[in-house]
Design brief:
The structure is a homotetramer. Chain A is α/β, with parallel strands linked by helices. Chain A has 2 domains: 177 residues, NAD(P)-binding Rossmann-like Domain (Rossmann fold), CATH 3.40.50.720; 124 residues, N-(1-d-carboxylethyl)-l-norvaline Dehydrogenase, domain 2 (Orthogonal Bundle), CATH 1.10.1040. In chain A, 45% of the residues lie in helices and 12% in strands. Chain A has 13 helices and 9 strands. In chain A, the strands form 2 sheets. Chain A has a 6-stranded parallel sheet, with helices on both faces. In chain A, strand 4, helix 4 and strand 5 form a beta-alpha-beta unit. In chain A, helix 1 packs parallel to helix 6, helix 4 runs parallel beside helix 5 and helix 8 packs across helix 11. The radius of gyration of chain A is 21 Å and the shape is elongated. At the B-C interface, loops of B face loops of C.
């Protein structure tokens, strides 16, 4: 597989917009970027803001995107949107001639939808000139998307001959590019990681609140945990207590970061996947209850997920 | 406060024995070490094994220990034992003349008992020549105790003039010595840290099992998590899946490490403390249920706490 | 307070429609019923189907309903809808002259919204001829609504002089009419009851599954529980296992009954209320996690809440 | 099977003592009762207090009991005790000649131990004159034991020809005698029932506290629940709020009733059984956490399990 020369992008939301922008900035100036989104305003704004970096053209349908580009990225909210984009008769990606093309879905969705699309791609693939589809969800949030420092977890084997091309492409928008072993395993890794991180965020929020109420200074305690058994990314990078990590959303009014309703969505997807493979989830159901309750409350919705600390009634040091 | 010249040790169990041994090895050869334990066999063995390093003498009671040494360490299982050792009329530490002496309790116990002892020490303290009592629980397990790499969380302020002496003494048995701010805050830090670590161990066990059942290679996934939001000590140092961390108890049949019933005890102590200060615990109650259920089962009891992975029905890679 | 002669109804959904129909059938033939709903089709159908029982007239706005009737019932999905119906400037109920009128909200909503509306009613109430507002949520589902056997939990004191009129009116649509003590306490009772019933449904589902897997016959076991400590409405009336209660939704493919997403909504409202009054909820968060996970799954959504039994992987006897 | 003429009783604890007393009172005066317990004082007291009702003789070992009686009851705390009593070489029941005898274990223990004993009995049983062993755990507590109103859940089929004799015997000590279908199913029913009742007690405690904090009168609310979906034995018979059920332990300082540590034990046994048959337990683990935490606290230990209401911080009406 060689590097594609024409590109398509479907989905210009909070994540997709900055990712597509980084793509446009870093692909050759003379290559074309086809874009499509249900929100025409986003498309128009994108064309306006990106055209200094190269040619950007609106495509009327997902099929049109796929028809005119050799590599298509998709970044949409849910499994049903991915299925719509790929499978809608007449206007979906698979209604185009995709022989030899590369289709990369960066959405975080349920495995079933991704596997369904992967199989449809395979079934429609031309003999001798296959279409390739990869799940490549990201972590790093809107900040990582803007700074092109996203981590990609990719549903491909490390020794797959196509991986080098994928890595080169994804590196235009991210930092670490992890091959997770095979089809759908990018999603599997994303969901399993977020399942754990959502719970570690909550355990750390509970334990920090306990510590502070017992009289400990949050920064001193967090610092000790960095080299103790309670240590984690949730403690040292995204500590839920305001002021402990100055750069974390908790220190900025829980703005930025990863929205709590998206955390709830990911925990839900992980639990659904767990049921399918008969993996026992215990803490996760309690955690889902907490994220669900907090997400419904207008004071917490749209804030960084670590606002569960406030939901818990955590003591907030003055900043 | 100057460095004490005579030492006492009460409690020669799984942790206390190797700690006292390191103490004996590192204090001046000509200083005396008084020892006491309810288990006479342990005392005799200790004297036999330690006498090459200096003078070790059995004391009949805790009072006798305190009478004859200027610094006494205690390391016993539960709050009631600490209270017995200090407060028993006639034979307890406080029945001795402890003016100017240093009493250091390394046990992990409930705060209420520690505070009760601290107040009794204060009440019995001589004017102008006070007795000093500090809570200084440890983490690091029996391995840390043996290697003198324990972490101490000490109930003292960083700028307390007595801290340098405490640090010098505890460094004979450990690595990091953390002043946590004041009386009882060593215990507060220990319990809060273990509360979080017990939950992170369980969340990681659940998420690893999910990942493996979804098809991921445990080492590859764990490695990706090291730089992702799911990362933690529970992932990178004490991963619950056999084979992921070759040095972890999980890779050695869950032998060594921190016994699951002790993890249960610590979570229980943390939850009890949380009730006292009105800190909401959510995941902790579910976690306590799991550790409680697993601790009762003879297949898991006495094994490292990370055996919750097996309790969950986690898939175990062949080693 | 005397019985009103003209009536208004706002909200002709799954519950409101049959309730309003029973009202129309049972109020005097010559009294008028004003109706309003955002769904014009529902209004037209209602007028078509009810006009044989007496006069029914569409009102363009909630204000028009209130202007032309001395008693207005509201039955809408959420707190924000109730607030819209009452408080929208110009077109809401409180834009009308409501002096001396009776306003009864049967919706199951969050307390905060209900209290906000109650206070707005009070503030706008005429001196000497007050407007009266009561929260009167129902239980009994669409079947109870159709058969006029609903249970009403009313936010009024048992000895309030207005209660007899309220009781007479509500009895047109229901069976038991419970005065719960005062304003907002109808909702408090509804949410507290549903909180408990949602958990008992789940505990019974879990325990029945355990019993069946251990070899017990579900009917025999359920029967024994009827006189044992495990007994409950969840066991004897709405048993989650197919075939145990022939009339329960579980025996009819989980059709009918109380939709699982509404159960989730009520548990969420109860937990939110609990946070406000500092009531500890423990099981509820785990329960919310389960109902949340199951509600998201298309196989369970829109089914009776007792389908959590299937979500749990419960063994289903052949019917 | 005909009614036995000589009886044996092993285990004279809080439950066994009054049960054996009722047995002695109701069997023919001229029949003998052999008794055995590890606590000699209990045996002596029993003989002193019961001898007015007929002959009672101490037996030195379980084997001696079984040797001299045609029907033996056992009532001991845990599975390991049952195994000791039956299987200890030389002194256990099975060391006696038990051909044709009836062995009834009323203990609430883990299924594995019961099945192990059942199989050992079967293996040692004489051809043509079998020994019979039944699990027959009880519910009803010490009060039911004293009043001979216990409910028995018996591991036997309803149409088993031996059931009439069993029923007649157990009716000497209880009220309802339920044949649960076959060997070990008495225990299965007991554990499943207690699993559910422990959770319903907790859900009711949480919901009652919520209701009271929202302003509801506990008796009024409890009364409404009796005919609503939140209704249960936990509400109407053993309501956890003081004053709601005047006869319940909660109204008597949580004295009497079912000790919280025994509730914890039963939930633990149920969860262990659930793991064996792959029944998903969700609420149960959170519930076990609560009962475990509360059982460890000296303020709650030895009190009726419904004291979880106080553990939750429930508001207690003045009695």
């Amino acid at each position: 597989m060689t590097l594609p020369q024409s590109f398509g992008w479907i989905g210009l939301g909070a994540m997709g917009y900055p990712m597509a922008m980084n793509l446009r900035k870093r692909i050759p100036t003379d290559s074309i970027l086809l874009v499509n989104d249900v929100d025409r305003t986003a498309v128009e704004r994108f064309i306006r803001e990106s055209s200094e970096f190269g040619r950007v053209v609106e495509a009327a349908t997902a099929r049109d995107v796929a028809e005119q580009s050799s590599c298509v990225f998709t970044m949409v909210p849910e499994g049903r949107h991915v299925k719509d984009v790929f499978l809608t008769p007449g206007t979906g990606i698979l209604a185009a001639n995709t022989a030899g093309k590369l289709l990369i879905d960066c959405s975080t969705i349920d495995r079933a939808s991704s596997i369904e699309v992967a199989e449809a791609v395979k079934a429609s693939s031309a003999v001798g000139n296959p279409t390739r589809f990869y799940d490549a969800p990201v972590s790093g949030g809107t900040l990582g998307a803007a700074k092109a420092t996203l981590t990609f977890m990719v549903g491909i084997a490390a020794d797959d001959p196509n991986f080098p091309v994928l890595r080169e492409l994804l590196a235009l928008m991210g930092g670490a590019i992890h091959p997770m072993g095979g089809q759908s395993l990018g999603l599997a890794a994303k969901l399993s990681n977020n399942y754990i991180s959502s719970l570690n965020a909550l355990s750390t929020a509970e334990g920090m609140n306990l510590a502070i109420r017992l009289g400990l200074d949050p920064k001193v305690f967090s610092n000790v945990m960095k080299t103790s058994s309670g240590g984690s990314y949730a403690n040292s990078v995204y500590n839920p207590v305001p002021g402990v990590c100055p750069e974390a959303p908790s220190s900025k009014g829980y703005e930025g970061g990863f929205k709590i309703q998206l955390m709830k969505k990911d925990v839900g997807l992980a639990i659904d996947a767990a049921r399918q493979v008969d993996a026992k989830v215990v803490l996760g159901l309690t955690g889902l209850g907490v994220y669900s309750a907090a997400s419904e409350d207008p004071r917490f919705r749209d804030k960084d997920a670590r606002i569960v600390y406030r939901w818990l009634g955590g003591i907030e040091p003055k900043l």
